[in-house]
Each structure stands twice: as C-alpha cells, then as structure tokens.
Amino acid sequence: MKAVKKYILLILLSIISGAVCGLCGALFSKAVELVTTFRLNNDWLLYLLPLGGLISVGIYKICRVKNIGTTNVFDCVRSEQNLPIFLSPAVFCGTCISHLFGSSSGREGAALQIGGGVANILAHIFRLDEDSRHITIMCGMAALFSAVFGTPLAACVFVLEAIMTGLCLKATIPVLISSVTAFIVSQLLHVHPERFSIGKLPQFSFSFVWKTAIITVIGIFVAFIFCKGLNLGKYFAKKVFKNEFLRIAVGGILIVALTLLVGTRDYNGGGIDVIERVFEGTVKYEAFAIKLLFTVICVSCGFKGGEIIPTLFIGATLGGAIALLLGLPIGTGAAIGIAVLFVCATKCPLATILLCCEMFGFYCLALIAPIVIVSFVAARYKGLYSNNKDIINLIKNYKSN
C-alpha cells in the first residue's frame, strides 16, 4: 500500500513538473526566438560575440555552476550527486546570450539542463527520497525537451535511453506523462513544434537502397568526425587556454573571423531556418562541414546552448547535398541524414526513430527505422554523451535491482 501511495505521488509530481517545465520551456523558446530575431535584424551584434562569451562565463561563475553540462545532469540521475540550485537560470541566460550574439549553438541540450535543474528544485521542495528525486529529474528533462522541440514521445524515450538505469522501467509512465503535459502547455502558449515536410517517398528499388546506403555510410563517418572533434576540441581548448575567460573570448573572435570569411550568417545560431530551406529544396554542398567547424569551436570554447540542433543541421545539409548529387529528392536525403547523425551522436535509436516520425510524419517509419538500426550498430564510437550505455543494459540493471 505504501508503494502504491508513493507511485501515485510520483504521477502527481510528473504532472506538476510537466506543467512547470512546460511554462519554463515556452518562456525559454520565446526568449531564444526573440533574441535570434533581434540578432538577424542587427548584424553588428556578431562583433560583440567575444564580449557575450565573457558575460556568459561570468554568469556561470556567479551562479557557481562551473563545468556543469548535459552529461552531468544525466549523471545526477545515476548517483546521489546534486544539481546546483542556480543551474537553470544560468543555462537560460547563457543560451540566450549565445543566440543573441551568434554562437553556433542549439537549445535542446540547454533545455535538458534547465528541466533537470527545475525538477531537482521541485524534488527538494517535496522532500523526495533518492529514487523519487531521480525520476522527477528525468521528468523535468523530458518535459523541457518536449516543450521546446514539440516531440513528446521522442523526449520521453530520449531521456530513458540516455540514462539507462534500473529505474527507467519504473520511470516510464511518469516521464511520459510529464513530457505530454509539457507539450500541451507549450502548445497552449503558442510554441511551434519543429515539423518538416519530406514529401512523397521514392518507390522502393535497388537503386534507392544503394543511394540510401551511401548517405548512411558517409553520415556515420561525419558523425564520428563531429563527436571526435567535440571531444578533442574541448581537450585542446582547455589545455591551450587554461583561463576560461580567455578561452571563450578567443573562440568568439574565431567565429567572427570565420563568419566574415564565409560571407553569410547561416552558421550562427541554431540554424533551424537553414534546415527548413533544405526541405524546401535549397542546400549548399559545403554547409555541413562549415556548421560542424563552427559548432566544434563554439562548444569547445565554452559557449552555452547544446549540440542537438547543430547535429540536425549537419545531418540535413549533408543528406540533402548527397541526395542532390545522387538524384534523390533533397527532403528524403535530409531526413536520412538527420536520422543517421542523431542516432550516431546520441546513441539513442528508439528516440531517433520517434523523433523522425514526429518531425516528418509516421509514414516515414519504414524508411527511417532500418537506417537508424544499421547506423546504431555500425557506429560503435562514443557519442556526445560519453556515459551512454547500450539499450540491453536497461534490462540488466533492472534485474540487478
């Protein structure tokens, strides 16, 4: 009876965390949209990117959340490690600053951190035990991701897959409820979910299979370069520039110089507008490589935001460009590229399939699912979140508990 009451409390808390994180997610999404629009209308803001980086580092120091990232939030669910109380406002401000001045950063990675921070506060308010606190943090992470990106099923499964502890099976229903609740709240507040039209899929044929295989193989290789570049970039940036203020200032200067060199602002910010143009039939062959370079520099030097939207950008532009060369519809190639890059970077195959289905429509399931499975099995290198475990460990951990 005590266990039943405890689980009922978890369900109620999942609804509360979903509603609260839905509100926070809507506010966060609107704030990022506002500063992005302001930057696009004021090109001179790019030149202040180094200064913005210094302000961001200063905020993190004041809030005492130095060296806290998405991986640390995942680790918090696997251990008794706590999250700083000012994590959410620091990530919120840092990400808005990144988007205001033109850092090549996303927002979904930041959403996971904000959601975890908000849920951690709720867990302390209700004086939850460790297991309940961990589940509540998972609810918060999924809820913010769902509210910002508009993919409640993928958000739920992504958090469960990325964390992979024995609690995951017990947490499934609360996390799903929280994710769906946040999605509903965000829609009521007019946050637009990310949706792309890939059009009619090509007819199945041997030619289509080998062209798809080419995009998949190249995508796996590019994802490896991206993940390895981020890991090495962070290592060398910290080794060469030990002072984090100097590190982020140098990164900002490099991005300003590279932006002027390429002659376009397409690679500053998250790049959702560029992804939309790809699905409308416009893609540059070099776009994926430039975005990869911009993102590696920004993340390595300490700019806040996340890597998920840049990952989708790289996948869409890479897949679209190869499809253009092979005579496939650009939208189809872009969808394949997104699926390959996302699963290789996150190591979350089920979440990738659901993300693609929610973004493109469930009719693409027969195309996306085999590609995701093959890519996941083939890409045995470390992803963005190095502590990810294979899905089989969920069953092992559950049995051991």
Can you characterise this structure?
- This protein is globular.
- With 401 residues, the chain is mostly helical.
- It contains 17 helices and no strands.
- The chain has two domains: 2-188, Clc chloride channel (Orthogonal Bundle), CATH 1.10.3080.10; 206-378, Clc chloride channel, CATH 1.10.3080.
Number of helical runs? 17
Helix content: over 70%
CATH superfamily of the largest domain: Clc chloride channel
Shape: globular
Taken together, the total number of domains comes to 2
- N- to C-terminal distance: 20 Å
Q: What is the SS-derived class?
A: mainly alpha
- The third-level CATH topology of the largest domain is Clc chloride channel
Order of helices and strands: HHHHHHHHHHHHHHHHH
Q: What's the architecture of the largest domain in CATH terms?
A: Orthogonal Bundle
Main β-sheet, in a few words? none
Q: Class of the largest domain in CATH? A: Mainly Alpha
Compile the SSE list and pairings.
Elements: H1 2-40, H2 49-63, H3 70-78, H4 87-101, H5 108-125, H6 130-149, H7 152-163, H8 168-188, H9 206-240, H10 244-262, H11 272-279, H12 287-301, H13 308-326, H14 330-346, H15 349-360, H16 365-378, H17 392-400
Helix pairs in contact: 1-4, 1-5, 1-6, 1-8, 2-4, 2-10, 3-6, 4-5, 5-6, 6-7, 6-8, 7-8, 7-15, 9-12, 9-13, 9-14, 10-12, 11-13, 12-13, 13-14, 14-15, 14-16, 15-16
